[in-house]
Design brief:
The protein is globular. Helix content is 61%, strand content 8%. The chain contains eleven helices and two strands; from the N terminus they run ββααααααααααα. The chain is mainly alpha-helical. The chain has a two-stranded antiparallel ribbon with strand order 1-2.
Length: 208
């Protein structure tokens, strides 16, 4: 019996040669379940494969806001989605919840939450966005961030935003919700006004 995970990011434009991509897929076939590897450990393996998946995109197309808060969280999001595809929503939700425990145990204690790594806090945000707004928002975030024309990242940079503000603006634009409250809940000091500024710039560029 083989453990099979399949995650597809549709319509990510590629570059020349090896990266000429119309549909980019991460398809992994691993003999893990047959040797009794728990699904949580399989998710860890898929996280590392998620780094390899992202490496198919040349570094010069990484967005300027591609910083510490998403370098590790995005491969984890891919791994959790792959586990969901294989095991179903019940296990998928369980694994999402496991990743949230680091933040949930400190909710209400801003000092303790602020002491957590930015990666851990931002992963909590992305899990909340995935759970509430679905995988399509995550897929579109990746597409707009790594697309070859770079119009969305350039638009956010011209608005004078910080890295974390730009990320919050793009997720807010794609989800149709100002997510300032969620970022502030995990000790990222971002105002609703700054998010509205970035979202307005994206709407002017790409429409509602």
């Amino acid at each position: 019996d083989r453990f099979t995970a399949f995650v597809s990011l549709w319509g990510v434009p590629g570059g020349d040669g090896f990266c000429q991509i119309g549909v980019m897929n991460m398809s992994v076939l691993l003999r893990l379940s047959s040797i009794g590897v728990p699904n949580l450990h399989q998710a860890i393996a898929l996280h590392e494969l998620g780094h390899a998946f992202a490496s198919h995109f040349p570094p010069h197309r990484a967005p300027w806001y591609h910083g510490p808060h998403i370098i590790e969280s995005w491969p984890t999001i891919l791994a959790l989605e792959a586990a969901r595809v294989w095991y179903g929503d019940h296990v998928g939700d369980y694994l999402l919840g496991r990743k949230c425990t680091y933040v949930l145990r400190h909710l209400g204690d801003r000092e303790q939450i602020a002491s957590l790594p930015a990666i851990t806090r931002h992963l909590f945000i992305e899990i909340c966005v995935r759970k509430k707004h679905g995988w399509d928002v995550m897929r579109r975030f990746f597409q707009l961030s790594y697309s070859s024309d770079c119009s969305a990242p350039k638009c956010l940079k011209s608005a004078g935003l910080s890295r974390i503000e730009a990320t919050a603006c793009l997720y807010s634009y794609l989800s149709g919700e100002n997510l300032g409250w969620l970022y502030r809940m995990v000790a990222f000091d971002i105002s609703d006004d700054r998010i509205e500024k970035g979202v307005a710039a994206l709407r002017a560029l790409r429409g509602p």
